[in-house]
Design a protein that fits this description.
Elements (H helix, E strand, L loop, with lengths): L1 H23 L8 H13 L2 H8 L3 H15 L4 E3 L4 E3 L1 H28 L4 E8 H5 L2 H11 L3 E8 L4 H6 L5 E4 L8 E16 L9 E3 L8 E4 L4 H13 L5 E5 L2 H9 L4 E5 L11 E7 L4 E9 L6 H17 L1
Parallel strand pairs: 3-4, 3-5, 7-11, 8-9, 8-10
Antiparallel strand pairs: 1-2, 5-12, 6-10, 6-11, 6-12
């Protein structure tokens, strides 16, 4: 009985091994780069000694590499004569593919070197709309002057969409306000700007040097949507001060708020550089005081994702240029 059981187990192991081979569908090939280089050099130059000099190897080393390749492929690659060698039919069949493998590898290595040396590449920046239209373009202009072969794409979007864009790998860097800690996102402070009251030039606050938050009672407030980090900051201050200011209109884009202000529909609380987004001459910005509130502007990236050389350099240029501008 024990002999029968052992026989059954051996048969099962044999079947399992055959099935594994069937799943793979091919025999393992252990061809090395040096073997391919030796083969192509001998095929091109027609002599082992010339191939050895070209590869900076001894003739015996080249011969060993070619023999190892032939043993691996189970075909003779060359007909050997006293001085010259000629390709066999198998060698002629194999040569174009071997040359393509070496060419493709050389191209891949060259591309990586160009990425590292910033001679090619792409950087995508997800930026808050206000920042994309104000502080980001000068930094990008500085970057492309240094690295003209790097393609740069700016995706301007509402603040609340920046982190999701980073997590979907749709952007290398994000520029905006991170109001809550996110374990997946790393931020580096670029600078700060203040929240301002934005109103029409004929508004009662238009000529004031500063306005207290408490003075906003009774105003028609045009607010950004609730999932926007700037809206969170504004609501937090209004609630903490116990003001009765209520949102009358809710918009997603700062540009929409500015257009509504220009039409006299209300006032808004926006970053101080928002004024640059509109050509309307009848809009004023006034400092909001008691308290003065500033928001952090950060460059963001995924914590677990290494930046490409181009994105890393773009981050450095942003830090240099934007910190100087703010």
């Amino acid at each position: 009985m024990a002999l029968i059981q052992n026989s059954v187990r051996q048969q099962r192991r044999g079947l399992a091994s055959e099935k594994a081979g069937d799943l793979d569908g091919r025999l393992p090939v252990n061809v090395t780069l040096k073997q391919l280089q030796a083969f192509v050099a001998v095929a091109d130059l027609g002599r082992f000694n010339l191939a050895a000099a070209h590869l900076n190897l001894t003739q015996s080393a080249v011969s060993v590499l070619v023999r190892e390749l032939e043993a691996e492929l189970k075909h003779r690659m060359f007909d050997r004569h006293t001085r010259m060698v000629n390709l066999t039919p198998a060698g002629m069949e194999f040569l174009p593919q071997a040359r393509k493998v070496l060419d493709d590898l050389e191209l891949a290595v060259t591309n990586i070197h160009e990425l590292t040396s910033l001679r090619r590449g792409r950087v995508t920046i997800a930026s808050a709309i206000v920042l994309a239209a104000t502080i980001v373009p000068p930094a990008i202009a500085k970057f492309v002057r240094r690295y003209p072969d790097i393609a740069v794409q700016i995706r301007d979007m509402p603040e609340e969409e920046i982190r999701p864009a980073l997590k979907r790998n749709e952007a290398d860097l994000g520029i905006g306000t991170l109001s809550v800690d996110d374990v997946e996102v790393e931020k580096t402070l670029l600078g700060r700007d203040r929240l301002m009251l934005v109103c029409r030039e004929d508004h009662r606050f238009a000529n004031a040097s500063a306005v207290r938050w408490e003075d906003l009672d009774g105003e028609n407030l045009i607010s950004l949507v609730k999932d926007n980090p700037l809206r969170d900051m504004v609501d937090h201050v209004l609630i903490a001060l116990g003001t009765g200011v209520k949102t009358r209109y809710e918009v997603r884009y700062s540009t929409t708020a500015l257009s509504m202000i220009a039409e006299g529909l209300g006032v808004s609380i926006l970053p101080e550089n928002s004024r640059q987004l509109t050509t309307a001459v009848n809009i004023k910005t006034v400092l909001l005081a008691a308290p003065i509130i500033s928001r952090d502007i950060s460059v963001m990236q995924l914590r677990q994702r290494m930046l490409s050389p181009a994105a890393s350099e773009m981050k450095s240029v942003l830090l240099e240029a934007v910190r100087r501008a703010l």
